[in-house]
Amino acid sequence: MTEKKSPIISFKNFSFQYRAQKKPTLKEINLDIYPGERVLIAGPSGCGKSTITSLLMKENRPQSGVITLGGEVLSDFTTEGLMKKITRITHDSYIFKGTVRENLAMGCETASEPEMREALGQVDLLGFVEENGGLDMEILEKGANLSGGQKQRLALARALLHDSPVYIFDEATSNVDVESENKIMEIVQDLAREKSVILISHRLANVTAADKILYMEQGKIAESGTHEQLMAQNKAYAALFNKQQELEHFREDAV
Ligand code: ADP
Question: What average pLDDT values come out for the chain (255 residues) when binned by 10 residues?
Fold first, then answer.
């Protein structure tokens, strides 16, 4: 295929500084994300990964540069318009007191019960919900009667019902059990067949299949490419990946 698609998200010469900070947090970011692409933003803590997503969600306003979403300038989007385009799943998804049905309806008010069950099935939560009263199951404040992994999977079911062209997973698998982490990553792979997926993860092992990896350092994109390309470059990304692998094997050996 020679035809080049238009990017769904584009950052052009983008810089950003928090008022409370003395130095810019993001410096001259140029970034294009295409429909159907899985992009991993990696890098040490504090390098600016979450700030990129907060700017996409218009939680912060840029001082210079332009972000476009589907070809339109981001600042022209209303909050409602933005929500239709982007779904964000963070490490601490908002689960509220109410039934499973009510929690899922927040993702899509018009979702039918079969659609809700299908989404629960996709995240391997249907059996558990059925055993506990089905869609009428009562969820406690902040999902207190669910495990961390179940909470994230319920949030993911809701996100699947929401059906937007862009999904952001911001450290969505921190603090969940291995089974839930694997399930979430499986769904990310499936989603990326049709959607653009931005992943932010401090753990690199389960995201090496990303189409594009952006390795950030101190607010800049220091390296970009596929996992194989960045490993071959043998710079900071490769060093972080190797260090994490060593630590994980060390832990496995210690068990
Ligand atoms: P990462 O996601 O890579 O860990 P962040 O984007 O959260 O990094 O943070 C980048 C930098 O911006 C850090 O130095 C952090 O302290 C700072 N920062 C993040 N949020 C705020 C804020 N609301 N106000 C001021 N500084 C912030």
Answer: 76 93 93 93 93 93 91 95 94 92 94 97 96 97 93 94 94 84 87 91 84 95 96 96 87 63
CB 140 within 8 A of CB 195: no
Give the DSSP H/E element, type plus range, for residue 148. Answer: helix 148-162
Q: Which residues line ligand 1 (CB under 6 A)?
A: 18, 20-21, 25, 43, 45-51
Distance of CA 233 to the CA centre of its chain: 26
Q: How far apart are CA 9 and CA 235, in angstroms?
A: 27
- Closest atom of ligand 1 to 43 CA is 3
Tell me which residue of 10, 18, 6, 11 sits closest to 65, measured CA to CA: 11
Question: Looking at ligand 1, which atom is closest to the CA of residue 51?
Answer: 6
Burial class (CB in 10 A: 0-12, 13-18, 19+), 3: exposed
